[in-house]
Design goal:
Oligomer: single chain
Largest sheet: 7 strands, mixed
Helix content: under 10%
Distance between the termini: 40 Å
Strand content: over 45%
Shape: globular
Structural class: mainly beta
Length: about 130
């Protein structure tokens, strides 16, 4: 069992930055691919970014490319989502998710492909 805890959300003005963290407790993330998703009221949870086990491959939602960066520090069992140039449309609850995989270069973009989920952290971008 992997327990994930997100942190770093908050209220920021448009154009500002936030860094979200996803920390794993009790189990290592070093053999898990990790993704970030977000959800707004009345909408389905949507993919934002993903990173492979070895951190060498990343993938992003088109609308966040060039603004968001996903990274990981396996020694700290933590995955980050650096969000720059935030826009009101980025307002959502952000969730991290993880799944184990034998393939160090594999990433996943569908929520049903993930096994473990955090509780979410609210990001609000004001205009």
């Amino acid at each position: 069992q992997v327990q994930l805890v997100e942190s770093g959300g908050g209220l920021v003005q448009a154009g500002g930055s936030l860094r979200l963290s996803c920390a794993a407790s009790e189990r290592t993330l070093s053999s898990h691919a990790v993704g970030w998703f977000r959800q707004t009221p009345g909408k389905e949870r949507g993919f934002v970014a993903a990173i492979s086990v070895n951190g060498g491959i990343t993938y992003y939602l088109d609308s966040v490319k060039g603004r968001f960066t996903i990274s990981r520090d396996n020694a700290k069992n933590t995955v980050y989502l650096q969000m720059n140039s935030l826009q009101p449309g980025d307002t959502a609850v952000y969730y991290c998710a993880a799944r184990s995989t034998y393939y160090s270069g594999r990433y996943y973009v569908n929520d049903y492909e993930y096994t473990y989920w955090g509780q979410g952290t609210q990001v609000t971008v004001s205009s």
